[in-house]
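Forum: Protein Structure Q&A
Topic: Joint prediction for protein chains with partners

I've read a bunch of threads here and the consensus seems to be that you should model interacting components together rather than docking separate models afterwards. I'd like to see that in practice. Below is the full input, 518 residues plus whatever partners are listed. Could one of the regulars post the assembled result?
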Amino acid sequence: MSNALITVDGLGLVFDGRHVLHDVNFTLDPAEIVTVVGPNGSGKSSFLKCLIGAIKPTEGKIIRKPGLKIGYVPQKLHLDQAFPMTVSRFLKLAGSVSQADKAGIVEKLGLKDVLARQIADLSGGQLQRVLLAHALIGKPDILVLDEAAQGLDQPAVAGFYRLIEEVRRDMGCAVLMVSHDLHVVMSASDRVVCLNGHVCCEGTPTIVSAAPEYRQLFGHGTEGALALYRHVHDHNHDHSHTHDDSHEGHDHAG
Amino acid sequence: MPDEFLIRVALAAIGVAVAAGPLGCFVLWRRMVYFGDTISHASLLGVAFALALNLPVVLGVLICALGVAAVILTAEGRLHHTDTLLGVSAHAALALGLVAVGFLSGVKVDLLSYLIGDILAVSWQDIWIIWAGASLCLGLLIWRWQPLLVSSLDREMALAHGQNPRREGVLFTLALAVLVAVAIKVVGALLITALLIIPAATARLGSATPERMAILAAIAGVVSAVAGLAGSFRFDTPTGPSIVVAAVGLLIVGSLVRKVAGRG
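Posted by a regular:
Agreed with the consensus. Here's the joint model:
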């Protein structure tokens, strides 16, 4: 337990008079991959912002390992057209690191050819990899991804997830990923946490790469990077959150 | 050999322009054009305040610009949309300023000189103040360059980097207020924003990196200042507006060149 990178104890957040989060307990261990899923309005973005220190929680506490370095990959960059920024200049903003380390990351993420390009001109997938590189250059203990795969098609998502898995293997950082997709998660996730104001359920993703029907569901070229998560909720939500799906609908993995 | 008067006027205009360019880049990047407008309009209220209390005009303007900035930064997003808030405070500050100047019955105030500037009346003391203010602004930008850039890009990213984007925002606002205070004599309350954003927009046309844009903006600002001054003497037009017209001219030429070069 004392080994944990981040420990969240009884976290609660009141925002605009609304209890967005309550009684959230959570830990993240070194080199662990955790996916946090939740419907829109479930407080998962607020949870993430509490973790990186962007919002102060109203209740409970967050204990970060001293000297903890967080690499943050935002959903996208709201770069104004008036902001000139080449990829290579942007990567320099991540801090001073050895040229060899940086070259390694650039090479690994296949960014060599786009270094001179403007950030604003990149495709969605390229921008995603640039943001990932930026986060990795600081050699983080935790890589935090906020809906990083949103807007990518399924093979691209699968490719991105494989990349994250490789990064974890090579760099040994923990990965915390937030996703609004309640059912399809990164298969390499050690744990999946379902958040809806509080932790609804927690578990491991079902490995489905072998079953042909799932192969079909996910199309070709995803090569087992995606997996299903089966929710097991012991309670019902009587409040009017709009789930992407009802709780009863969660069992199509069964 | 240009006489001492011309040197004074040129030094004043160049001092403001050289700091306004790089600051203006951040105004564009942080989407703070309306914010800049608001605190420059507030400067008129500062003039009235200074005249009433017999303070130096620069000090009155600085205090008022900071006051309005503080009000906006605290009220932002609470009761009204930021855009609404800025629109209201910009015009409230301007109207209040005009009314307040009207109340100063004892003093004869040349309102127009504060609205569009009165650069021909700058003294050597004004020039010292302008260059001190400009150096302060540029020094701050150089000192905070990296964290300012990151916080202008993405607030959450800056936080994850262990930076304090709010502090950077406050420091930047401080620099903006200082510039507004020293620029009022040169271009006046109505046109300060123009001097901030037009050279920066021109610089954007030829820049691939933020550093290059900031340097080009300073150069574009200085070129506009000198060209505007020359035009103003040649055609006997008001100086502040002439500088802004020159800046707009430079932007149009730059855009055309860019368009032609882009095609070829």
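Chain B has one domain: 4-263.
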